[in-house]
Amino acid sequence: PNIPRAVCFHCRIPIQKMWGIDDFEIGRPLGKGRFGTVYLAREQNTHFILALKVIFKSALEKSQLEHQLRREIEILSHLRHPNILRFYNYFHDRTRIYLMLEYAPGGELYKELQKHEHFEETRTATYIEEISDALIYCHAQKVIHRDIKPENLLLGLKGELKLADFGWSVHAPSLRRTTFCGTTDYLAPEMIDGRTHDENVDVWCVGVLCFECLVGYAPFEAPTRNETYKRIAEVKFTFPTWIPDGAKDLISKTLKRTPSLRLSLKEIIKHPWVKKNSRRIFPPVYKAAEQ
Questions:
Q1: What does the pLDDT read at residue 178?
Q2: Residue 109 and residue 114: Cα distance in Å, rounded?
Q3: Thinking of the domain 107-290, which architecture would CATH place it in?
Q4: Considering only CA atoms, which of 97, 74, 260, 251 is closest in space to residue 170?
Q5: CA separation (Å) from 229 to 95, 105, 160, 178?
């Protein structure tokens, strides 16, 4: 029976033995993905607003990615950070799997970037501090995201960044992996070369993200995938003349071919350009992650 047993402290949703689609009022679609659609939803009893990600089992089975979803659920269920999209619970029926997720009213960073073409220094530096702090927390939990890009970053009620979509993420106690994954423009050189990679692939992505937020396009963007790969392998990119020197310094020190030579995430947060321009709302979490 669908009997409430307790209440989640964070979202006030009853913790139940079994959830069902009838427990929710379904609203407008928020986005469409490869395997299904995300809808705005409201829990019937508490009227708590959330996002309901509906995934078709047949599509997952066809792509043989059931293990990837299991891994994503396992990883998300253990993460608690103000800049990581909260995962509440999941349930399923005969044909679909439903993920109960935090609703981010600001939508995708990608759409916001398209609308504005590029962001000013303050906004970009704030996002860079937020994503770096979230990744320090992830790496402390031995989780590498591996697919950071504007499409996987959402905006919360106060405009804060929310890292989402952990489909390519991995819990790796050694933090060393060989699987080729991610999005072309954001791939690190070691992934393209087929070398073993570690959490520094996420650091590389922060540098790419900083460039794209300020300029409006990714630094290694090219007409074909192979040309993009070549540019990444050679770390071949140019700054527009109007990019501030502080941002150039940060990006240049992050986009290093040798992973160990890249700025660390803590160094990115402490970088003078970030310190000067960031207007982050929430206090840093990485100090707690160290303890």
A1: 41
A2: 9
A3: Orthogonal Bundle (1.10)
A4: 74
A5: 38, 35, 32, 17
Phi, psi for residue 139 in degrees, rounded to 5: -65, -30
Question: Looking at this protein, which amino acid is placed at residue 204?
Answer: W
Cα–Cα distance list, 111 to 106, 155, 219 (Å):
10, 11, 19
Q: Is 107-290 in the same CATH topology as 4-101?
A: no
Structure tokens at 137: 């927390």
CATH number of 4-101: 3.30.200.20
User: Which pLDDT score is estimated for 65?
Assistant: 78
- Say how far apart CA 251 and CA 96 lie, in whole Å: 42
pLDDT-based confidence at residue 67 (cuts at 50, 70, 90): confident
Helix-then-strand count for the chain, H and E: 11, 14
Which residues, listed in sequence order, are joined to residue 144 by a DSSP beta bridge?
170
Q: What is the mean pLDDT of residues 66-92?
A: 89
Binding-site sequence positions: 34, 53, 57, 102-104, 151-152, 165
What's the residue count for the chain?
291
Mean pLDDT of the 115-123 span: 96
Average pLDDT, the chain: 86
Residues 153, 164: Cα–Cα separation, whole Å: 6
Catalytic residue numbers? 147
- Domain spans, the chain: 4-101, 107-290
